[in-house]
Design a protein that fits this description.
- It is a single chain.
- By secondary structure, the chain is an alpha+beta fold.
- It is built from 18 helices and 18 strands.
- Helix 10 crosses helix 18.
- The two termini are 37 Å apart.
């Protein structure tokens, strides 16, 4: 549970090389040191009850170690011509305590850890203070790099470790360069990382399909006077769909979800990060806008109850060894597992936005271009449906399509689901070109604003939403057919999301669960 065949030393090497690119000249010739603390087991409020532990991403990237309470000390000597002596990586892990053996899983022994982790040396954490003091003596001008200190976002380094370094007259301690260098390094994935992202995608893809097939089976539990077995489970609530998704991932060995699953039925699908997942599906004669369903029981026999035709949006993905999947599927519920006419119109338009985006992906293409493309396709589609009226160019310049597609078309994906934000959307960004076709609102919520490069992994997740708050911005728009729009308002929203690896000449889709209309309807209706 603590490690894998993870290429940690290669990541440390790449990070130091990135550091050397950004260091001021007066620091470049000096020995460089990275000192990091791993995460500690969290506890619930003021109790001794453990919460799930997940290692801090940057620490795992440089160590491959998920042991709580560990530390990393890496030394890079740029003046060494021998590659074998230029880099050393020391991992410090906690010693086994007697209480560990009784209450929880103990950390590995030193000998076990040597078989688990790709580092130069391993010792107990109690020896780290002495190791730091020896390093200070042997490398009198070393530059120590840490993640931002006194930040709640990262594990805290104990004061005794930093005190000796900070008070030294010949050594430098800085938190100005490491995080940005780590983010730039993590932006490009190596073969080992892609394999883990693929594993997370495979498990999550099967989980999405499992939910669809349980919907299609429509197993009825009426009259069974005992707890339902998994094969008898119904999905009549958002929470039930979430439970089956998470269970499917967990039974394949995925310990963590990459983020809180979003399971939103009916109009709730218009809320982008709806994580409540606590409502029933919409039942007749109750209308789609009634979120409470007047207390109707999910499993109670009631012949007069009939599912209203609606959409169910599930945005969920698991982690595999700290690497994330991020997949969204929108599926028909009710109506015999088939889309309504208007539901199919909007779903097909979102699918077109995604498929044309993916055909455009290759190194050198700026992500802003993909965002603009999606808005162009949306405007053309709404004109064809009669939802928009007027000139395509004028509508694009007006920005009203942002009321229906308010978010970015995707983001960098890796160890974190919204990965390496300082690298994917840098503050000082010289790559952005002026858009003379669209509107500034198209780019407000983009989390990636760079030209694509080989080895990047990105999500492609266009969507169309009918959200009451957002639609207020177009209430007076001359470009909107307001009468026709009323017929779509109760739909909620549609999003389709796949995880994409940028290759040397294009891209590769890591997500395996299908999204075409014919297959979706066949599965959700129980036909296949």
């Amino acid at each position: 549970m603590f490690g894998s065949s993870y290429c940690a030393r290669a990541h440390v090497q790449r990070t130091f090389e990135q550091l050397m690119n950004v260091l001021p000249s007066q620091l470049k010739d000096k020995p460089q040191v990275i000192l990091l603390a791993g995460g500690r087991t969290p506890f619930r409020n003021d109790t001794d009850r453990e919460l799930p532990f997940r290692q801090e991403s940057n620490f795992y990237y440089l160590s491959g170690c998920s042991v709580p309470g560990s530390f990393l000390l890496a030394l890079y000597q740029p003046e060494h011509t021998n590659a074998s002596t230029r880099l050393s990586v020391k991992l410090s892990i906690p010693e086994i305590q007697a209480a560990d053996l009784m209450w929880s899983v103990p950390p590995p022994t030193i000998e076990e850890a040597k078989q688990l982790f790709d580092v130069t040396d391993i010792a107990y954490s109690s020896e780290l203070q002495g190791t730091i003091e020896l390093l200070l003596q042997s490398h009198s001008e070393a530059v120590f790099h840490t993640l931002p200190r006194n930040s709640p976002l990262f594990p805290t380094l104990p004061e005794e470790y930093m005190a000796t370094i900070v008070t030294s007259e010949t050594h430098t301690a800085t938190d100005a360069y490491l995080l940005s260098s780590l983010h730039k390094t993590r932006l490009i994935k190596d073969e080992n990382e892609v394999a883990m992202l693929q594993r997370a995608n495979d498990i999550s893809s099967r989980a999405h399909e499992t939910v669809m097939r349980v919907l299609g089976n429509a197993v009825q539990g009426a009259g069974i006077d005992r707890p339902l077995l998994p094969g008898e489970w119904l999905i009549e609530k958002e929470a039930e769909a979430e439970a089956i998704f998470v269970a499917s991932c967990r039974r394949e060995g995925a310990v963590h979800q990459a983020y809180l699953p979003i399971v939103a039925a009916s109009r709730r699908a218009a809320t982008l990060h709806y994580c409540c997942n606590d409502r029933e599906f919409t039942w007749g004669p109750i209308k789609p806008h009634d979120h409470l369903n007047h207390g109707a029981l999910a499993h109670g026999p009631a012949p007069e109850r009939q599912l209203e035709p609606q959409l169910l949006l599930i945005d969920a993905g698991c982690e595999w060894d700290c690497y994330s999947a991020d997949i969204t599927r929108t599926m028909p519920v009710g109506n015999g597992g088939k889309f309504t006419e208007k539901g199919k119109q909007i779903y097909s338009l979102v699918l077109e936005m995604q498929q044309k985006s993916m055909k455009t992906l290759r190194p050198g293409v700026h992500w802003d271009t993909i965002q603009l493309l999606c808005h162009q396709i949306l405007v053309e589609g709404f004109l064809d449906l009669g939802l928009f009226k007027g000139s395509k160019d004028e509508i694009l310049r007006s920005g009203i399509s942002s009321a229906f597609f308010p978010h970015g078309v995707g983001h960098s994906l890796g160890m974190d689901v919204h990965d390496v934000p300082s690298a994917s959307k840098p503050i000082n960004n010289m790559t952005i070109l002026q858009d003379k076709v669209g509107h500034p609102s198209f780019y407000t919520y983009l989390r990636l604003r760079l030209p694509l490069a080989e080895g990047m992994v990105v999500t492609v997740e266009p969507g169309i939403y009918f959200h009451e708050h957002l639609l207020k911005a177009v209430d007076e728009s001359e470009y909107v057919n307001h009468n026709l729009l009323e017929e779509y308002r109760e739909m909620g929203g549609v999003r389709i999301e796949d995880d994409i690896l940028i290759t040397s000449d294009g891209c590769e889709n890591l997500t395996k669960v299908r999204s075409d209309v014919e297959w979706l309807e066949s599965v959700c209706s129980g036909e296949i």
